């Protein structure tokens, strides 16, 4: 079995990584946590797991195949660097870093050391995203004209946790949270981003909790992305318009907002709309645990880095877009996206 260490057992480590690792059949053997309650939780949920107090103790655990970094975002680079220097393959939860230059530094370090590195972009495995990609692949919408995606929540009183208290440099705010998913998805669908215009606000938290970005991809295609924690009436999760109709997922008028039926399985909650005509869209099944199955397969392959499910250079580009979005919002102008490690010409 693939032996895994996990840095952090908070909402991400306990809520996402540990369950997916178990489902994928990997062996979670060690967890880093200095919180007694979380340490007890880790032992209860993962029989036989060893809980250690810090990263140095984790590195000393024998025969680790890979370590998952699920610490607060502002510490991802510090933890990933230490693991790569120790020669241990690393999965870093998104965002891989808080800016593109730090992210590129990790990519360079991993390449220089010959140690595999990948990024936990779990939303690539969502049923709704699998369905959207299938629609685009089959050309159901005709000639594409615009993609709009959003992630709205209603949290007028923010949660009391590090993500809401942290500055952007420390990993706080929606750009480094929900937008890393949205940007990753639209780059996969429509290619790299050339320019960005952004409007950002921080109404209730230290970093931004209300965001809008307009992207122009290198082929000229346009996407609009937004995320908010202060939206009392959420808009559509996705609206993709083409010459043959529009795909709509969710709306402020009470439509379902995700591809799930009453039992939590795939449903028919997306719609292909052509004026007064509306056709239900069957959701594709997609298993988030496949991410870790693919990590295990990559580690056993002749070229582990090439076989990883997420190329970390994708995450560098996403952070370059976010960096440009911050400049755009501050200056009120369209900004070119410059991705470290790539030829600007």
From TrEMBL:
UniProt KW keywords: NAD, Oxidoreductase
Domain of life: Bacteria
Keyword Oxidoreductase (UniProt): yes
Protein name as catalogued: Gfo/Idh/MocA family oxidoreductase
MF-aspect GO terms: nucleotide binding; oxidoreductase activity
Family, per entry: Belongs to the Gfo/Idh/MocA family.
GFO/IDH/MocA-like oxidoreductase domain: residues covered: 129-247
Domain Gfo/Idh/MocA-like oxidoreductase N-terminal positions: 3-119
One matching Pfam family: GFO_IDH_MocA_C3
